[in-house]
Amino acid sequence: MECLSHRIDQAIRDNLWKPLKLSRDGPPISHLFFADDLVLFAEAGGTQVRIIKQCLDEFCSSSGQRVNYQKSAIFVSANIRRRCARALSDWVGIPLTVDLGRYLGVMAIHGRVTRGRYQDLALRIQKKLAPWKARYLSLASRITLVKSVAASIPVYPMQVELMPKTVCKDLDKINRSFIWGDSEEKRKLHLVGWQTLTLPKDQGGLGIRPSRSVNLAMLAKCGWRLMKEKETLWTQLMRGKYGKNRENLDIIKPIKGSSFTWNSVSKTRELLKVGSGWNIHRGNLTRFWFDVWISQVPLIELTTGPVPDDIRDGMVADFVDEDGNWLTEKFEGLLPDAVTRQITAKAVDPLAGEDDVLFWQPTSDDRFSTKSAFQLMQPRVPSEAAQMWKNIWKLPVPERVRCFMWVVAHDKISINAQLVKRKIASSPCCYRCSTLEETTIHILRDCPTAAFLWARTVPPENQQEFFTLQPKAWIEKNLQVEATWTSEIPWNAFFSIASWNLWKNRNEGVFKGIGKTLSPPSLTQATKIKATLWYKAWVAPQNILGRRGTAVQRVYREISWIPPPAGWIKVNVDGAANGSQGPAGAGGALRNHHGVWIKGFVANLGTCSAIQAELWGIYHGLDMA
């Protein structure tokens, strides 16, 4: 295929092949190859068709490969007369088409965006998440399958198209229905709302990703590549047609009459604006007031008064002198003192050879990722129960038990008290004892069957607190206890498995009859056995992989000043900051090989991080030396 590419390029250099130009300043495009698939672009005329045929024939003759003309297609623009198009098709022996169809799940020719256009995508997802599969899978398995399918099937179209909101809602509905086991004949009980399911796990959700947010995150990646990648063919084409003479975020703007893909990418401008930041070098590309380079927001949003017009549009380089010293008189009274200290701790070198660099703030390596873009769109609401949710997902138990405890923590299991509210059950009373209302705390702790189990597994000195705690505190407390109280396994693991077994035993009585349930002594014994077996099965692969029981050997070594070789001078520096971002300082000393003090320095750095303070210490130390 590379030989064919060289042959086409040679035909272009010889002015034989006339490639397609999408814009005056964009690159010409003659061919696109992917594996053994080819797309060739040329002027619609008899001469060009002969040149294309000649190149293909020469390639086939030299390589031994053949072109399947019957599986190929010719597509011409609407400006070409149909009679001329048919003549070209007949001459070369390739069928004429008005629709190139889909490639990798994406329409090759973008037309009007409708709901029906994505019907095939919805059908493919429905096929993967068929209702019959839900009947044979646990809740944990259904959640895993939804995450897998949602992360793979819609990927290609979501990267280049902003799907209509109705389509995204349809995809979410398919996922939601499968999680709760809906079928075509019957809609099952949805225990927890969709808004909760889409929350991060540490906020009480399952981390299910809404289709609309995933779509925007994928498109934001295209937008980021448009800003950062200037050498790839597709970015050159898009920049030449829509982003002429613009850079960085100024490129990502909606343009009237532009393509559907460009309009889709432009919808992510605000997301890219929130996540983008600037690494300062010369300060020549970063706007002092309107770009993000010091804090998480532009400085214009932190001002304590109106910014004078003569400095409002200034670049960072306009606020330092030739030596990189800050001209604090230009902004000192316009920003809070803490922000001013952060600015003065920033190093700027107007004479540096490197321009400012745009980077992606949410990631540690400054590179864009769709995961971080998605998380940026998700609301982060502080949760008082964050530790409880973390404890649930860290339990050393099977995933189905974790999912059950997640539902319990939301107080959403299908107890009679809940079913009466939904008008599904007629009585709120407990199925076992038939006297008290069947609530979560009753069925899992206070019912005589449950109380019998706990009385024989909870240590006597802990039983008073265990049986008197309020429901929420009771769950949180028992999920925290890792001490071994019974069966030689952590209590939080036994507690979770025992709760799951109590619920399972209750359901067998409801659906199969009271004769199918275990007596309290038998249930207690069966729970201990099951908990021990499950825990051992869970912990065995962890030990094999070396994740548990690995002792960390601590090595001690003496740390002292090491003198330099005779005739040399050594500079030692250090920097420190109070907190991740706080008041910082640095200091250093010059000593000879005898350890005799020669010179030293101290520096008040303003507000910065510890690593910045260390770097400032190195800078001042080298400057002093």
Using brief descriptors, characterize the structure shown.
two-stranded antiparallel sheet, flat, three-stranded antiparallel sheet, RNaseH_domain, 10% strand, 625 residues, mainly alpha
Average the pLDDT over all residues and give the rounded result. 88
Which spans have pLDDT < 50 for at least 5 consecutive residues?
A: none
Order the strands across the largest sheet as they lie in space: 11-12-13
Structural class: mainly alpha
Helix content: 40-55%
> In whole angstroms, how far apart are the ends?
59 Å
Q: How big is the Rg?
A: 34 Å
Number of helices: 26
Q: What shape does the CA trace take?
A: flat
Beta-strand residue percentage: 5-15%
Count of DSSP E strands? 13
- Main beta-sheet annotation: 3 strands, antiparallel
Organism: Linum trigynum
Protein name: RNase H type-1 domain-containing protein
Domain RNase H type-1: 565-625
Pfam families: RVT_3 (PF13456), zf-RVT (PF13966)
